[in-house]
Recover the amino acids of this structure.
């Protein structure tokens, strides 16, 4: 990843956000990131190939849902909760509560430190 593009808050589109959140795996990733902590891509455990996980993380980033930071060869991701709450008040709270209630994206988890690739 060269330089990741992150839309400015005023350029975040509700249609793109809702489209990105419509995928169960992406919703699971958002649920994991909702605690506000930055996560290394290697910490994310999903039932898909690494290239597919990368595709889903890019879709979230392109929609303005997450921010990706590269440090050397490692990538880290955070949820842009403040930006999303400013653009669409109450949306993320409602989405996360509903996802939790319906266990949406349950196949996504965090690897334990000993399982995470270096």
């Amino acid at each position: 990843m060269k330089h990741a593009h992150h839309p400015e808050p005023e350029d975040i589109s509700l249609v793109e956000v809702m489209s990105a959140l419509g995928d169960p795996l992406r919703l699971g990733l958002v649920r994991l990131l909702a605690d506000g902590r930055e996560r290394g891509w290697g910490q994310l455990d999903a039932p898909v190939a690494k290239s597919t996980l990368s595709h889903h993380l890019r879709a979230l980033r392109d929609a303005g849902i997450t921010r990706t930071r590269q440090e050397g060869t490692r990538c880290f991701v955070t949820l842009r909760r403040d930006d999303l709450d400013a653009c669409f008040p109450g949306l993320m709270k409602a989405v996360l509560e509903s996802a939790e209630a319906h266990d949406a994206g349950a196949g996504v988890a965090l690897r334990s430190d000993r399982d995470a690739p270096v």
About this structure: The radius of gyration is 14 Å.
